[in-house]
TrEMBL record:
Membrane topology, as annotated: Single-pass type II membrane protein
Record-stated family: Belongs to the glycosyltransferase 47 family.
Primary location class: Golgi
GO terms assigned for molecular function: glycosyltransferase activity
Compartments (UniProt record): Golgi apparatus membrane
GO BP annotation list: glucuronoxylan biosynthetic process
Coiled-coil stretches noted in the UniProt entry, renumbered to this chain: none
Organism of origin: Aegilops tauschii subsp. strangulata
Protein's UniProt name: Exostosin GT47 domain-containing protein
Keywords: Glycosyltransferase, Golgi apparatus, Signal-anchor, Transferase, Transmembrane
Residues annotated as domain Exostosin GT47: 5-114
Entry GO terms, CC: Golgi membrane
Length: 127
């Protein structure tokens, strides 16, 4: 997470330089997934996330993020869609069965959960 801003900035710079796609809309037709604390602000601590805000190069893009709050928040000052976070299988079994609707749009995300000495079980997630 601490390297996310730099990695994304490098990726966007490459696309700007090598391909026409970003430049035709300044990124407005590009989608990014930010599935961690405070979404597109890319920091797990809210005070730092708010101070840093969303990187300028992402502000015109569509952001899929697991971070959502009622009311204004610096980390939601861009077009965004709130997506559900990871729910462990043992917790999912306790949830009601999802609506059985026919769907024509599907999304898949393959991510990972970091193991941290303070979160060795992986069961705790802030917000």
């Amino acid at each position: 997470l601490s390297h996310a801003r730099g990695l994304l900035a490098d990726a966007v710079a490459l696309v700007r330089r090598e391909m026409p796609y970003w430049n035709r809309s300044a990124g407005a037709d590009h989608v990014f997934v930010a599935s961690h604390d405070f979404g597109a602000c890319f920091h797990p601590m809210e005070d730092v996330a708010v101070a840093d805000g969303i990187p300028e190069f992402l502000k015109k893009s569509i952001l899929l993020q697991t971070f959502g709050v009622h009311g204004p928040h610096v980390c939601q000052e861009a077009e965004h869609v709130v997506i559900p976070p990871h729910v462990p299988p043992e917790v999912a079994l306790e949830l009601p069965e999802p609506e059985k609707a026919r769907r024509d749009i599907f999304a898949f995300f393959r991510g990972k959960m970091e193991v941290h000495p303070k979160n060795i079980s992986g069961r705790f997630y802030s917000k």
